[in-house]
Structures are given as C-alpha cells and as structure tokens.
Design a protein that fits this description.
Layout: H1 2-13, H2 17-32, H3 36-53, H4 61-79, H5 85-103, H6 111-126, H7 130-152, H8 160-180
Length: about 180
C-alpha cells in the first residue's frame, strides 16, 4: 500500500493525472476491497477531489470535500460502516489543509498539527482511539516531510527522497493495520 500511495503522491505533484488515476484504482481496490464498478467510481472521485484541491492557492476545497464525501459514501455502503461520510470527508480535507499550511510555511502550523489531523481522521473512520492510530499518523506525516523536500528539490522522479517517503508510508500502513486490529 505504501508503494502505491507513494506513486500516487509522485503523480499528484508532477500533475500526471493518468498515473495518479492508475494508482488510485489500485489503492481503492486493495485498501477498501470494493467491487470493481465501485473501485472505478471511487478512484475517479479520489482523482477529482485531488484535482480540485491541487491548484495553489486557488483551489476548490468545498468541491474536493464533496467528491470525498461521495467516495466515503461508497465505502460506507459497501462495508456497512457507521461513520458519517460528510464528517469523514471534512476530516480528510482538513488534513490536506493542515499539510498545505505546513508545506508552505505559514509559521503557525507544525508537524504536530498534521499528526493530530491525521489521527482524527483515522480514529473517526476506523472507530479506534486516536492514541492507537497516532504512530500511523506520525509515519504518514514523516512521509509528507520527505515528499515536501522532494517537491522543493524539483520533483526528480529518480530522487532517493521518494524511497524515504515510500518507506515511511509502508510503516504508516503497518501501524494503522496494527491499531485497527488491536481491539
């Protein structure tokens, strides 16, 4: 999963939308185990949400959140989850906002804020205490630090920073899996 997400991040920052969609299809299928029609719909919604979020500073956070709400509705419907898709989408786009603020150095946002935002999303959607998913959030935030360094360095697809990002994402997914199955 970490390798797929790393590929999606590379595609996102290089604005390679077909490559992003390929990664989103695989991520949606493997992470959420949706049937193929919903996998394709879900991946498309993730793509659209990211495209709406991507322009900086003139993005469309409300549009991105609406697309993510539709995505989470697919997940809730297929798995019979009890969380509110609108709230999950709000938490999703909130960590995007916090990351962007940290990425562009607003001075008020730090990695702790990002970890908190990620842990809030994980805790809400997986129904586990935030303290249990915090290690996963910390590793994901670390992956973002590597990604941000890669972006500042020019987005070289051969950069060793991509491997550091991928490794942190792999650790994040492992920690998330452990937290979710801890109960």
């Amino acid at each position: 999963m970490g390798s797929l997400e790393s590929a999606a991040w590379v595609a996102y920052y290089r604005r390679r939308w077909p490559a992003f969609l390929r990664a989103a299809i695989l991520l949606t299928r493997h992470t959420f185990a949706l049937p193929w029609p919903d996998t394709l719909r879900g991946a498309w919604l993730v793509l659209r949400s990211n495209q709406l979020w991507a322009p900086c500073p003139q993005n469309d956070p409300e549009g991105a959140q609406r697309a993510m709400e539709r995505f989470y509705r697919l997940v809730v419907r297929h798995h019979g989850e009890s969380f509110d898709p609108a709230r999950a989408a709000e938490l999703e786009v909130e960590w995007w906002r916090v990351h962007r603020a940290a990425q562009h150095g607003d001075g008020a946002t730090n990695q702790g804020h990002l970890v908190d935002a990620l842990a809030a999303l994980y805790s809400y959607t997986y129904g586990v205490p935030a303290r249990h998913v915090r290690p996963a959030a910390e590793q994901r935030a670390l992956a973002m630090v590597q990604s941000d360094r890669w972006v500042k360095a020019g987005c070289d697809p051969e950069s060793p920073l991509i491997e550091e990002e991928r490794a942190a994402l792999v650790r994040s997914y492992a920690a998330l899996l452990a937290a979710v199955h801890r109960q």
